[in-house]
Design a protein that fits this description.
With about 140 residues, this protein is an alpha+beta fold. It has helices at about 5-15, 55-65, 95-105, 125-130, and strands at about 25-35, 40-45, 75-80, 110-115, 120-125. The chain has a five-stranded mixed β-sheet with strand order 2-1-3-4-5, with helices on both faces. It is globular and about 45 Å long. The relative contact order is 0.17. It binds tetrahydrodeoxyuridine. Tetrahydrodeoxyuridine (THU) binds near residues 25, 27, 56, 57 and 90.
């Protein structure tokens, strides 16, 4: 991926931090998902008083895209921290990795974790979800 493209995603994810609804954990997360067609879908975490219905930033972004008919993706950038302070990397939870497995090629899909434009690491989904279960496993 081009550095310029990565910087655009980092900026978009950072912008999402202001919309994070995290009154329980106070841990704010922003995500920016780059579709194959070049569109960017953003997301933030949305918590709930009943806890379990809470949604991560990554899944918010994926569900926004899929609900608009977009199912092919290149990369996602995820940033987060306590009260939105970006001190360390925020890796995706297991549920979000599984959602990525549904729509992304694990060898190609990139997951960008960072604390800002000057500090980020790029992983493939396969690196973060080795031996993951996906749609291909249901085929004979
Ligand atoms: N969270 C995300 O939104 N994405 C991640 O990658 C990790 C965790 C959210 C869920 C919850 O609202 C808060 O961060 C603390 O777990």
């Amino acid at each position: 991926m081009k550095q310029e493209q990565i910087h655009t995603l980092i900026e978009a994810a950072e912008t999402q931090l202001q919309f994070s609804y995290a009154p329980y954990s106070h841990f704010k997360v922003g995500a920016a998902l780059l579709a194959q067609n070049g569109s960017v879908y953003t997301g933030c975490n949305i918590e709930n008083a009943a806890y379990a219905p809470s949604n991560c930033a990554e899944r918010t972004a994926f569900f926004k895209a899929v609900s608009e008919g977009v199912r092919e993706f290149q990369a996602i950038c995820i940033l987060g921290g306590p009260d939105g302070k970006l001190g360390s990397l925020t890796p995706p939870c297991g549920v979000c990795r599984q959602v990525m497995m549904e729509f992304c090629d694990p060898e190609k899909f990139k997951i960008i974790l960072g604390t800002g434009k000057g500090n980020y690491v790029v992983y493939t989904l396969k690196e973060l979800m080795p031996q993951g279960f996906g749609p291909g496993n249901l085929k004979d």
